[in-house]
Specification:
Helices cover 34% and strands 28% of the residues. It is an alpha/beta fold. The protein has two domains: 2-239, P-loop containing nucleotide triphosphate hydrolases (Rossmann fold); 246-334, Alpha-Beta Plaits (2-Layer Sandwich), CATH 3.30.70. The strands form three sheets. The protein has a six-stranded mixed β-sheet with strand order 6-7-8-3-9-10, with helices on both faces. A four-stranded antiparallel β-sheet has the order 2-1-4-5, with helices on one face. The protein has a four-stranded antiparallel β-sheet with strand order 12-13-11-14, covered by helices on one side. A hairpin with a 2-residue loop joins strand 9 (207-212) and strand 10 (215-221). Helix 4 (111-124) crosses helix 5 (140-151).
């Protein structure tokens, strides 16, 4: 659905915001783009609908070269690329109906069809009873729901979300993410999420990339990256999640040489693998940490164990679709 090839963005002052960025986002993906402030995330997402122009490279959307479009053609294509922002960008002088209808009027919808479309969108985002309210009368989460309804007004194929949950509290963030997942499942649209919140990527995205100082340093399936982060930035971002922070485990380790991190992949979390290994190999096991993580479409379990006894037990555990790694590398990182 979206292809970015050899993208470079250099501003007139010489600052290089993006350097040789290559990305492919498939139809139906919920794709997360994450990085620290100033990494180039917002610049990257604004290239997709040409709110920013690249200095060089190619932007292909749904098989079409966006950089070859005339101004009029670009305006038409943008109607199929919805966008929501951190601060909602609602018109304070217009009520909910008028804010959503405005997008339809710009697209020159038949006036007789506008009200029914607005009502349909408000039902989709759960705000049918707020149709006559003004933005000042809405909570932050409700304002973002209106913004989502407006972005979906013209039946877009793509929804761009630029820090869409950063201004919301924890409960509203969870609610908006559930809404976006529901919309993607129902409408089969492609969603691109710009965020600095690793929790957002973990809960909603199926694929992701990490951007650092204008370059993509890691990309792939969310679960694979969480399982095996390669870049320093990715490791830092993931380490901010409580379940990936090893500091609380370290004081309780008595035998580092026999401490292991086990990752249970889909389909085996509910099997008594450790219990069976204890009986089969007569090993001693001390559980230091255990957690279960749900990703957007996948799940995995994680344990940190001290295991003493027959080393064949580790090979047997591995044979049951469990990844086993020495925990010594975590000790080294923390020290």
């Amino acid at each position: 659905m979206i292809v970015l090839e050899n993208i470079q963005k250099i501003y007139p002052n010489g600052f290089c915001a993006l350097d040789d960025v290559n990305l492919k986002i498939a139809k139906g993906d919920i794709f997360g783009i994450i990085g620290y402030s100033g990494a180039g995330k917002s610049t990257l997402i604004r290239l997709i609908n040409r709110l920013e122009e690249p200095s060089s490279g190619a932007v292909i959307v749904d098989g079409e070269d966006m950089l070859a479009l005339s101004y009029q053609e670009l305006q038409e294509r943008r109607q199929k690329i919805g966008m929501i922002f951190q601060h909602f960008n609602l018109l304070s002088s217009k009520n909910v109906f008028e804010n959503i209808a405005y997008a339809l009027k710009i697209a020159k919808w038949d006036k007789s069809k506008i009200r029914s479309r607005v009502e349909e969108l408000l039902e989709l985002v759960g705000l049918s009873d707020k149709i006559d309210f003004y933005p000042s009368q809405l909570s932050g989460g409700q304002k973002q729901r209106v913004a989502i309804a407006r972005a979906l007004a013209n039946h877009p194929k793509i929804l761009l979300c630029d820090e869409a949950t950063s201004a919301l509290d924890t409960q509203s963030t969870a609610s908006i993410l559930e809404l976006l997942k529901s919309i993607q499942k129902r409408l089969k649209i492609t969603i691109v999420m710009i965020t600095h919140q690793i929790e957002v990527v973990k809960s909603i995205c199926n694929k992701m990339c990490v951007i650092d100082r204008g370059r993509v340093v890691e990309k792939g399936l969310v679960r694979n990256i969480f399982l095996n982060p390669k870049s320093k930035v990715t490791k830092e971002l993931i380490a901010h999640l409580p379940e990936y922070d090893c500091k609380e485990v370290l004081p309780h380790i008595k035998d580092a040489a026999h401490t292991y991190e086990l990752t249970f992949l889909d389909g085996n979390q509910n099997e008594p693998i450790i219990s069976q290994a204890i009986k089969k190999f007569d090993i001693d096991v001390n559980i230091l940490f255990a957690d279960f993580n749900n990703f957007s479409k996948k799940s995995l379990g994680r344990m940190i164990l001290e295991i003493r006894g027959d080393e064949k037990a580790l090979e047997w555990i591995k044979s049951h679709n469990v990844e086993v790694k020495s925990f010594l590398y975590n000790l080294k990182d923390e020290r």
